[in-house]
């Protein structure tokens, strides 16, 4: 057990923060919000999350899961810059900061 904790701590120590740019979406619709007929994309995203989907970052063809599931709500369907650490095996970004890109 101690070896496992040491390995996890060492892995986290080598992971460094990076910047990711993309659009806040949801894990259900990802790219296509029109088929849900819920109005604007932001409304669809928020509705899907309320129904159990998760907020994600859509960066071109890549989709990243986000550790923070509260902050992205105010950025739904917007282009953002996320500062955080990507855990490649799980595809999760541990979010440190989210800011709108103009």
Give the N-to-C terminal Cα separation. 47 Å
Number of alpha- plus pi-helical segments: 2
Q: Proportion of β residues?
A: 35-45%
User: What average pLDDT do the residues reach?
Assistant: 86
Q: What is the share of helical residues? A: 10-25%
Rg, nearest Å: 15 Å
The coarse silhouette is globular
Oligomeric state of the chains present here: single chain
Task: Report the uncertain regions.
Answer: none
Question: In short, what is this structure?
Answer:
The protein has 102 residues and is of the alpha+beta class.
Give a structural overview:
- The protein is an alpha+beta fold and 102 residues long.
- The protein is built from two helices and five strands; from the N terminus they run αβαββββ.
- The chain has a single domain, classed as Beta Barrel (OB fold (Dihydrolipoamide Acetyltransferase, E2P)), CATH 2.40.50.430.
- It has helices at residues 2-14, 41-50, and strands at 18-26, 55-59, 62-66, 79-87, 92-100.
- A five-stranded mixed barrel has the order 1-2-3-5-4.
- The radius of gyration is 15 Å and the shape is globular.
